[in-house]
């Protein structure tokens, strides 16, 4: 995997993990173009597209797009599984994760990602082990930060995926 | 100084901003606060500040002033600091900054830390963004950790090693000993990362690959692990939808692919397990299909037995019918890769593939189109073409160019009949005419020219198409060219293939003139139609009308049109005797072997796409234009008049002659030479050989002595010889004409004719004035094709003006040295 991007339906970046060395300017350009391309895709289209010389695998979970760039020899279908595994990990950690969790706890999202993937490859295939490691690391922190998850006021229509919609709801 | 606000607080605040400007203001304020806090070297809150900075960085604001702070955090002893510090390093630093090298020492220390989570942080950072220098410095530490018994660290070290190898391939050897018993681990994390490491090593180095194949016996080990995964019962820890650790399975399959490629023994050893995986894997969910996909890729790449290959293709065929479009996409991609090697097996799924042309997804449509073209053959051409033409009608504009080109190629290769071919082309031109590539116009013209019996039919259909729509330029260009060439057939109503239409000369001229004035026509198209009108001057009787049109455009603003019109005008006025010969029917054009089908003619200096048209232009500025009325050269029945290759507008391009191949002109002359049966299409395209190289003479292997061909009245003509490099049947002769009298010879024209069994091409002369007193010479190149290796004979005709009076002479040249024709 060369990079992974998480962004909202309005195109706001929520997480960016780069496994290849690129300048800040290049990263910004790639991000901008790719976000535009993916957001332009219609819902019925398949999750893969060719972009420059890379294969892009993306999947939408509620209001968040998870987008990975893989190389020619990588397996697209298993990349979808990797994305799904990451969402599962986030879900288990935050308890019914939604976009807001990732906005307010972005550093935790990174920590979890870094326990799951290293250098673009999966380092641990057991969900349990990844979560255990994070748990232990959290305990190590001298300041235990209890994050209060913000719940937006108002009733949300079930059809609108907003930042507080659990990622596993369609 | 109050404590800096907490991270979550900041995030909440920024999110309340209603405009971009408001957000920017908040950010700037906070950045200022953070900066002063950094200046004060505040240890307590550094972590919090960097975290805030990282958030603002994600929003797109500059955060470079935090880079050094990250380093300080990494060096701290607090775990929280290290965590944020390393994260910051990964986000803000990259190998381009020198700052990152300062991390090296910290990382080194942390790799040896007592707490495994700190070691983990260091390994992770190094494995994600370590530069080559860092990797070089720290490779030893990584290697040490690769041998530890702590599986948490071992798995991270393995992936870190992968990164090191990618950055510094020479260090690969170093990790070899540590890989010894990686695969005997029980821990799946270690197994997975080890397989990745082994894959990287095998991909990079053929030596490593054979080492792992032979010495380590990797294949049996992998087969064993894979088997356990499949056969073992439910393992909650690694289960995904009923499949045990699909990530590991896929990686193992990929490594097996590399090990089995090109190696019979390895391929055989993995045959069974591949068959097992292919048949036993659950296909209801994406996971199972992911594994099947990898299996299919492996089967196709290794030396598998045919039964297995058929199994693989059938899996792909089943994928094509899957509801999940992702699976269909993947299937089409894989089929595209295998269609060359397993063509027949893929053919069986042709109808499914053609159905995919109607899919809604753009990527699937494109893949299906590429695959369809790959599957077209002589048997299915009619059916496939129907589908493809339908697709061409309805597809997105981005596809049309590729689809049209593909259709042309396929039609050319497999057309069942000429009429079908022409009909297909017509269909493409009328449906996607504006998307057709520029180079298809000359290709089509060549095709039409060569389908002699279809000329009437073609021109009729094209004319009718023009009546309907003149907006699609390639169609219009081809149509005007054809009307120019075959207008006489159109008017005489000679069509055999279908009901001939009644059309008068005036109507035809109306259409062509309409093209000239229409806003839809591009300058190129206008050029085509003007030339077509001109050509009709020898085929139609309405000369006055044509003359009028031509003279009007003599003052056109478009330079190209103006030049053509002026030259055509001159043709009417001064060179009328040459007009019929110049505007004759085009002979059959051969495709050259050297140029691909996309480039019929690549002439030096000529970039005009209407190359074929410009060749008809006489260049009035060069009085050396060789006249084509060579009939008076004919002495006996065995002599064939030479078709002068027309003079290019740039005198310097000696090699830039047209492929005006010699049809066998009937000796009675006339504007419609029938293609000579004695000139088979398979003849080596000698006229174009060596065209692109200047000078033409590049083979001096056989040195042939020069000879004097003619020497009379002070005019001496010498022949020097070369053999044309690519084709030994071609002799290249240069004539050197010198004048020993005291007066120069002007308007010097050299003509030559050869017996029927030869073919001759005359290139343009260096000049038409032979200076007096041998002060210079006129040179001209003749190329003679002599496939039957008969004795070379030539008849030459010389005309020039000497001391005010014209001189003309005929001579036979029989004294060619034997080497010139043997």
Automatic annotation (TrEMBL), chain A:
<keyword id="KW-0472">Membrane</keyword>
<comment type="similarity">
    <text>Belongs to the adaptor complexes small subunit family.</text>
</comment>
<dbReference type="Pfam" id="PF01217">
    <property type="entry name" value="Clat_adaptor_s"/>
</dbReference>
<dbReference type="GO" id="GO:0006886">
    <property type="term" value="P:intracellular protein transport"/>
</dbReference>
<dbReference type="InterPro" id="IPR016635">
    <property type="entry name" value="AP_complex_ssu"/>
</dbReference>
<dbReference type="InterPro" id="IPR000804">
    <property type="entry name" value="Clathrin_sm-chain_CS"/>
</dbReference>
<keyword id="KW-0813">Transport</keyword>
<dbReference type="GO" id="GO:0005905">
    <property type="term" value="C:clathrin-coated pit"/>
</dbReference>
<dbReference type="GO" id="GO:0030121">
    <property type="term" value="C:AP-1 adaptor complex"/>
</dbReference>
<protein>
    <recommendedName>
        <fullName>AP complex subunit sigma</fullName>
    </recommendedName>
</protein>
<keyword id="KW-0968">Cytoplasmic vesicle</keyword>
<dbReference type="GO" id="GO:0035615">
    <property type="term" value="F:clathrin adaptor activity"/>
</dbReference>
<keyword id="KW-0168">Coated pit</keyword>
<comment type="subunit">
    <text>Adaptor protein complex 1 (AP-1) is a heterotetramer composed of two large adaptins (gamma-type subunit AP1G1 and beta-type subunit AP1B1), a medium adaptin (mu-type subunit AP1M1 or AP1M2) and a small adaptin (sigma-type subunit AP1S1 or AP1S2 or AP1S3). Binds to MUC1.</text>
</comment>
<dbReference type="InterPro" id="IPR022775">
    <property type="entry name" value="AP_mu_sigma_su"/>
</dbReference>
<comment type="function">
    <text>Subunit of clathrin-associated adaptor protein complex 1 that plays a role in protein sorting in the late-Golgi/trans-Golgi network (TGN) and/or endosomes. The AP complexes mediate both the recruitment of clathrin to membranes and the recognition of sorting signals within the cytosolic tails of transmembrane cargo molecules.</text>
</comment>
<keyword id="KW-0653">Protein transport</keyword>
<feature type="domain" description="AP complex mu/sigma subunit">
    <location>
        <begin position="1"/>
        <end position="140"/>
    </location>
</feature>
<dbReference type="InterPro" id="IPR011012">
    <property type="entry name" value="Longin-like_dom_sf"/>
</dbReference>
<dbReference type="InterPro" id="IPR044733">
    <property type="entry name" value="AP1_sigma"/>
</dbReference>
<keyword id="KW-0333">Golgi apparatus</keyword>
From TrEMBL, chain B:
<dbReference type="GO" id="GO:0006886">
    <property type="term" value="P:intracellular protein transport"/>
</dbReference>
<dbReference type="InterPro" id="IPR002553">
    <property type="entry name" value="Clathrin/coatomer_adapt-like_N"/>
</dbReference>
<dbReference type="Pfam" id="PF02883">
    <property type="entry name" value="Alpha_adaptinC2"/>
</dbReference>
<keyword id="KW-0813">Transport</keyword>
<dbReference type="GO" id="GO:0016192">
    <property type="term" value="P:vesicle-mediated transport"/>
</dbReference>
<dbReference type="InterPro" id="IPR008152">
    <property type="entry name" value="Clathrin_a/b/g-adaptin_app_Ig"/>
</dbReference>
<protein>
    <recommendedName>
        <fullName>AP-1 complex subunit gamma</fullName>
    </recommendedName>
</protein>
<dbReference type="InterPro" id="IPR013041">
    <property type="entry name" value="Clathrin_app_Ig-like_sf"/>
</dbReference>
<dbReference type="InterPro" id="IPR011989">
    <property type="entry name" value="ARM-like"/>
</dbReference>
<keyword id="KW-0472">Membrane</keyword>
<keyword id="KW-0333">Golgi apparatus</keyword>
<keyword id="KW-0968">Cytoplasmic vesicle</keyword>
<dbReference type="InterPro" id="IPR050840">
    <property type="entry name" value="Adaptor_Complx_Large_Subunit"/>
</dbReference>
<feature type="domain" description="GAE">
    <location>
        <begin position="702"/>
        <end position="817"/>
    </location>
</feature>
<comment type="similarity">
    <text>Belongs to the adaptor complexes large subunit family.</text>
</comment>
<dbReference type="InterPro" id="IPR016024">
    <property type="entry name" value="ARM-type_fold"/>
</dbReference>
<dbReference type="GO" id="GO:0030121">
    <property type="term" value="C:AP-1 adaptor complex"/>
</dbReference>
<keyword id="KW-0653">Protein transport</keyword>
<dbReference type="InterPro" id="IPR017107">
    <property type="entry name" value="AP1_complex_gsu"/>
</dbReference>
<dbReference type="Pfam" id="PF01602">
    <property type="entry name" value="Adaptin_N"/>
</dbReference>
<dbReference type="InterPro" id="IPR008153">
    <property type="entry name" value="GAE_dom"/>
</dbReference>
